[in-house]
Amino acid sequence: MRKTIIALALWGATAASAEIDIPINYLHQIVPQPPTLSNLDPRPEQLGIDGASLGLADNLTTGGFLGHKYVLTVTEVAPDDDVIAAARTALASSPYLLIDAPADTLTTIADLPEAEGALLFNTASADDALRDDACRANLLHTLPSYAMRTDALMQALQKRRWTDLALIEGTHPTDRAFAAALTTSAEKFGLTLGSRKEWVFDADMRRNAAQEVPLFTQDLRDHDVLLIADELHDFGRYIPYNTWEPRPIAGSEGLVPVAWSRVVEQWGAAQLQSRFTDLADRPMQSQDYAAWAAIRTIGEAVTRTNTADPATLRDFILGDDFELGGFKGRPLSYRTWNGQLRQPIPLVHASALAAQAPLDGFLHQRTELDTLGLDQPESSCTAF
Amino acid sequence: MRALLALSLLTTPALADEIWVTNEKDDTVSVIDVETLEVIQTYETGERPRGITFSKDFSRLYICASDSDTVQVMDPTTGKILHELPSGEDPEQFVLHPNDRHLYIANEDDAITTVVDTETREVIAQINVGIEPEGMAVSPDGKIAITTSETTNMAHWIDTDTQQLFANTLVDSRPRHAEFIKDGSELWVSAEIGGTISVFDVETQAETTKIDFEVDGVHPDRVQPVGFEMTEGDTHAFVALGPSNHVAVVNAATYEVEDYILVGRRVWHMDFNADRSLLFTTNGVSGDVTVIDVAERRALKSIKVGRFPWGAAFRPTD
Question: Does B81 have pLDDT greater than 80?
């Protein structure tokens, strides 16, 4: 009862502000995933969507004091349905669109005539080309790219002087992409990637990892750390403690570079974590964080500019004055050359944060955050 | 042994003043003797103690036990918890009204400011504010209370007669701490991620100036103003700059930063001794308290306390 009256009083106190409506769409193209050996960690049904919902709640609270109203509409498109038609419909209702879809869908949507002047957020694809020659001026990225994650990992390994690496990679395209990024990053930070092997077993590792993995890893050349590229989390979980040599595991398993994880608890993150678990009844994952950051980006820009005009918001978001509190210890901002949200990358294992990149000693003339991922001279993006 | 101690305390009436520090990750408060600069007592508290303040006569200590969802009232002469106050969920920081009776409490997880009557031990109002309320201040005349919200990035102005908001003003990212200064004519709000202190004219609630910080050799992203306190006569502010491990000295008349003092790691909050000649800062990551000579503007000593010291409050003993 008390709360109701207070809410009324609150609205009364802010009635002077002009009302601004900001509708936001969220589009999820459902992509069938190949089966994995273990079913321990299924993709949460509302992955990403829950993060967007939390961002919306945060925006609505701030908006309540300023007369800014946000509405989030989620559209999920089945594998057989027309995702481009769904994107057209969404863009007809609002220029603000979050997209959870593969890279080719993202560029197709960004190139639609309806998307001209719109503000699209990639919240789910780590594809490096989207930040490079496949970039689009109307497409921002809140999920870190593969390169940002693998650069973060290599900084941590270089810092520990664990410089000799071996790699086991899966055959899924995302495994390949992650393995390619690991290779590039190892070279960038002066580490040596020696042996690499492909994982092509079709035996059930839940039963015989202890027999197979030691043999499989026996012929790897000397290494300090064994890297795993298994972004679907299929076989990687069966590698630790079964290797021929006693070596730490990193990459997709073991020490993992992420956008977000439940073990991040510094920098006020405990508050974001508890708000999220209250809302979603599960821990917050990287895609949830990326969707939250996208909605909060829109919110922060509307709050500071007091407008819902997408061109004004885009200018502000890519401008010097934009900064987003992202619970990672530093203000987040966007790279003006490819639209990527620059952000620290937590390096986590199952029960704690081990380190956070950029690590001390990796310097950059602009900001240390730009030691992660494609820097301005490296990116061939010309759309911005 | 205990009897002996009590006896010796009784025979030395000229006890030194104290600084009380909450240890967020030890669930304790440490008591520092201002003369010897040593920890003389450690008392247990509820879970995750953060905000800490004394009643006006220093007979009661209020502690935000955040994860216990309560404000504890401690007898500072014995360290005993006398009772608990209903505080709303996750109380982080609070301020005691000049009437010595009403506590204004920021409920970090709930986007609410709770007002508790410390005598009747009842909640007298709950006010909806922005996400993650933290910084709390009350004007010297008691008419205005302030809550700052970390994610909404606002200072919320509360009329203490009606317990309702009458203004909401934007500040930079992640506001952490607020203080009324110069007889309540100015309000200062620090923004951790924004890296600034906003100065407001209280009469009009308009921002009049913004203070920036710049520490040699530290990237601006890591210069993060958090807690601050004013010297005698409000001439200078000492501002904790978080992970830059420095305290800034700001001239409150010109709003210029005059000095930076190196202290412990992740410096957070602070309080002065009686004549404000010494300043005690809590350093969360290094787990210690730095003692600063205010006139000389240099660190004198580090005092080891518990894990993750957070708040600090002064208690005279005479």
Answer: yes
On average, the pLDDT of chain B sits at 94
Residue A107 has pLDDT above 90, yes or no: yes
Total structural domains in chain A? 2
Provide the token pair at B171: 């500040």
CA–CA dist B240, A340 (Å, integer): 32
Give the torsion through C-alpha atoms of A303, A305, A309, A313, to 10 deg.
Answer: -90
User: Which residue range(s) make up the domain with A327?
Assistant: 2-144+261-343
Mean pLDDT of the region B111-136: 95
Our CA angle for A75, A275, B149, nearest 5°, is 110
Angle, vertex CA A265, rays to CA A292 and CA B107, nearest 5: 80
Give the count of beta carbons closer than 10 Å to the beta carbon of residue A270: 18
Kindly state whether residue B160 falls inside one of the protein's structural domains. yes
CB pairs under 8 A between A and B: 79
With cut-offs at 50, 70 and 90, classify the pLDDT of residue A17. Answer: low
Q: What is the mean pLDDT of residues A192-209?
A: 86
The structure tokens listed for B54 are 């004394």
Measured distance CA(A206)–CA(A358) in Å, rounded: 36
User: Under a CB-based contact definition with an 8 Å cutoff, are residues B231 and B275 in contact?
Assistant: no
pLDDT for residue A189 is more than 60: yes
Probe site for chain A from B109, B126, B190, B219 (most A CB atoms < 10 A): B219
In sequence order, what are the beta bridge partners of A21? A69
CB contact at 8 A, A206 and A7: no
Residue A203 φ then ψ, to 5°:
-80, 160
Contact between B168 and A304 using a beta-carbon 8 Å cutoff: no
pLDDT value for B143 = 98
The pLDDT confidence band at residue A204, using thresholds 50, 70 and 90, is: confident
Contacting A with CB below 8 Å, chain B residues are 108-109, 111, 125-128, 130-132, 150-154, 156, 164-168, 170, 172-174, 193-195, 219, 221-222, 243
Task: Please give the helix or strand (H or E) that residue A174 lies within, else none.
Answer: helix A173-188
A162 and A102 part of one domain: no
In Å, the largest CA–CA distance within chain B is: 60
CA pair distance B272, B274, nearest whole angstrom: 7
**Is the pLDDT at B1 greater than 50, yes or no?**
no
The CATH number of the domain holding residue B203 is: 2.130.10.10
A2: helix, coil or strand?
A: helix
Which residue, among A28, A124, A10, A120, has the nearest Cα to A74 in the 3D structure? A28
- Give the CATH number for residue A275: 3.40.50.2300
Residue with tokens 């620059």: A342
